[in-house]
Design brief:
The protein is mostly helical. The protein is 78% helix and 0% strand.
């Protein structure tokens, strides 16, 4: 009937993508109106908007359970997802991109000390 949940899963992914784009645009507009640079907006407003629901969920779980196991699990799981997806996914995308494109002239001129130590048999990436 529901394809084993597969259509629901992909619809959920699409909704998450849409809401992520919407939140990013709204944060950018708010930052533009308030005169806040985009990096500051991203670090403060968007990070706050993604962390506050986890905080409230942990608070409610801690209040409703005598041992507060659910709140510890929520905090641990939330931080794990933030670290592994928030750092791992951009690293993976950058690794794939740079392995296909290779060092550009701009990159070589920007990081001459790193470029002089490049070994073509291994990947080296600089992220600022």
């Amino acid at each position: 009937w529901w394809g084993g949940g597969l259509p629901t899963f992909f619809l959920s992914l699409a909704c998450i993508g849409f809401l992520t784009a919407l939140v990013a645009d709204m944060a950018g507009i708010l930052g533009c109106v308030a005169g806040i640079p985009d990096p500051v907006t991203a670090i403060t407003l968007v990070a706050l908007g993604t962390s506050l629901p986890d905080t409230f969920a942990s608070k409610i779980a801690a209040e409703n359970e005598p041992t507060a196991d659910a709140s510890i699990t929520n905090v641990t799981g939330s931080n794990s997802v933030n670290v592994f997806l928030g750092l791992g996914l951009p690293w993976l995308c950058a690794s794939l991109y740079w392995s296909i494109v290779g060092p550009t002239d701009e990159w070589l001129s920007r990081y001459p000390d790193v470029a002089s130590q490049l070994d073509p048999s291994r990947a080296v990436y600089v992220v600022l």
